[in-house]
Design goal:
This protein is an alpha/beta fold. The chain has eight helices and seven strands. A hairpin with a 4-residue loop joins strand 3 and strand 4.
Length: 179
């Protein structure tokens, strides 16, 4: 089984993937490691301090065996289950600040989370038959253990329903602006 753990940078993808990998005994690999291994790094964006990946070729990667792929592009690799982790914009902003990210990069990622960018991209991947199932999980205020337990229930077919996440609605309700 190939499982993708994706989401906006800072939502907990790596931590959840490693914990889930231990429980399932699956190999855990980042989308960046796969891109490097397959020579799909096109360059480095100095302004945004991030690598540029050839995502068209990235989509052609095929893994065999049991893997958990994590990273914000992992849903572009053919998989059996895509889990999109979500996190409240306020908490995401705090995490990225603690990591020492620049204001512009924090703003870009908080906006991406508010606007469901990764989730919508994962849904499009499902429509294009890259993913068989897509489920989003709101990790706000949840422990890693509880998120892993939820994913295990999804894998075992005990649960399939995505969390309802609408950060834009919540921003307007609370009249909060995170950017």
């Amino acid at each position: 089984m190939i499982i993708s753990i994706t989401g906006t940078p800072g939502v907990g993808k790596t931590t959840v993937a490693k914990a889930l990998g231990k429980v399932l005994g699956y190999k855990v690999i980042s989308d960046f490691e796969l891109a490097k291994k397959n020579k799909l790094i096109l360059g480095f964006d100095k302004k945004m301090k991030s690598y540029i990946v050839d995502d068209k070729l990235f989509r052609k990667i095929r893994l065999k065996g049991d893997f958990i792929i994590h990273g914000h592009l992992s849903h572009l690799i053919t998989n059996d289950l895509t889990i999109v982790l979500r996190l409240s914009p306020g908490e995401l902003e705090k995490r990225l600040k603690r990591r020492g990210w620049k204001k512009e990069k924090i703003r870009e990622n908080v906006l991406a989370e508010i606007l469901d960018v990764v989730y919508l991209d994962a849904i499009l991947a499902k429509k294009n038959k890259i993913a068989k199932r897509v489920v989003q999980i709101d990790t706000t205020g949840k422990s890693i253990k509880s998120v892993v337990k939820r994913i295990l229930n999804i894998i075992k077919g005990r649960e399939y329903k995505s969390d309802y996440v609408d950060w834009l609605e919540k921003c307007f309700e609370k009249e909060e602006i995170f950017i």
